[in-house]
Amino acid sequence: MMKKFKKMLSLVLAIAMAMSLCACLQKAEEPGKTAQSGNVEGLETVDGELTGTITVGYTADFAELYDLLIAGFKTMYPNVTVIPQEIPGTMLGQINQMMALAGSGKMPDVCVGSEHFGTILQEGWAYPLDNLIAEDPDKEYIMDQALVNFTYEGHVYALPYQIQFNAIAVNLDLLEQLNMDVPEYDWTISEFVEMAKKATTTTTSGINYIYNAAHPTWGLDNKLVSAMVPEGYHQYGYSFENHTIDLNAGEAWVKANQLIQELKSVYALVSDDLKYTGGEVSEYERRFGEGADALLSGRVLFGNHSSWETRVLENANYKYDFYPVPTGDGLPEKIQAHFDFAYMTTKVTEENRDAAYAFLKFITYSKEGNMIKLQERKAAYEADSKTWDSFIPACSYPEVMEEFENNFPVTNGIKYMYKTIVERPETIHVADCDKLIPNYWNDIVQFRDAATEQVKAGQDPSSLVNDFQSKAEAAMQGTWSYFSRCMQKNIEEFYKTHPWETNNAE
Prior knowledge:
four-stranded mixed sheet; D-Maltodextrin-Binding Protein, domain 2; six-stranded mixed sheet; disordered N terminus; globular; alpha/beta
């Protein structure tokens, strides 16, 4: 009990440190209560003329952060009234809560999300931002790929809130122990395979797992397909131009499956496969010990874990880094990126439109908002037993990049990925289309799983790819056709109910 109390006290003290940025902040603890004006250190009023009342929706896991963000915004825009609206649950599962809010007419004006933006659009909840972005003098700091991601039928509907990366966790101590060279961050799949094989000994393994039953995005199979597609294609060969996948592009799906079979043919290379060897005691237990975790105990070179999974390694007793997913041999470097988002809802009126956009900009790509987010995450890290939840800014301000590079507690590999996509945007590979495209994984997985089982049974993936491709393509085109009709209906209704906006996409 005392240990738990000390940990809670440390976290409270750290949040207090972050809150020391704010003076005279009063938390709106009751629904509908107005957030009071704050005076955030280092910020000044930029627009005392802007007025309006806005509701800001966020989930409970972001409550402390939004106290800080609202206070900072109020310093810069003192005459905007901000009403916090805490949404039950977490950001990952908020779509159901948003359905309920929309049905009861209680949708916030501005909201943050991480999943199923296609559903949000199909329901007609998102406000097109074209005119607001066009008038924004700071729009150059929005990442171009993010605007591509959130453009549908000629309209931009969201701004990037934060970035995450597909990655590989690398045990740096085991590299030294096995007398292996530390790879460069722009490594290739051939290097990865060679190292995984070399790291497979009588006591160690190359990687912890390949397939992920919880979510297809997390599996190494998905990451490898993305690593092998040519330029212009994204996750699983997705094309934003055609709104379908091309599994034959670069023979990516066939090559990825062949590579997986090659890895799995090396006994003990995939440590978690040893859990299913049968018998009363599995080979995993015999090799690593009863109740042992091979990855955390330092007996696995590569962990199939990404930037949002940093807490997986909080109890690891070795030095590690998060590397980009290696790129297919002969292809330009890719950084597999995910963009979470924030958006204005169609509840916004002419009276609070500019205030809503000012807040949306502040929490997404503004320099000031990102500095607050970095400082809050750093304070939480320093309090919570030196573990951190990765936050990666989705903007290109030099000051934010410098703060992230020099002061933020993430591994050098994550810093490399962020710096690379800012300085070389062409390296961005959109790695979570399920966030953006309606029914994305459902349209793929219903056919992929059957094909994968056939490959596991020994069938040549090249004999399966065309059938898989034609079925998935038909499903995705059907979904997109329906989605497009919904979008057309929604945008027509939007301009009827919001006549102050002009439809410049026509």
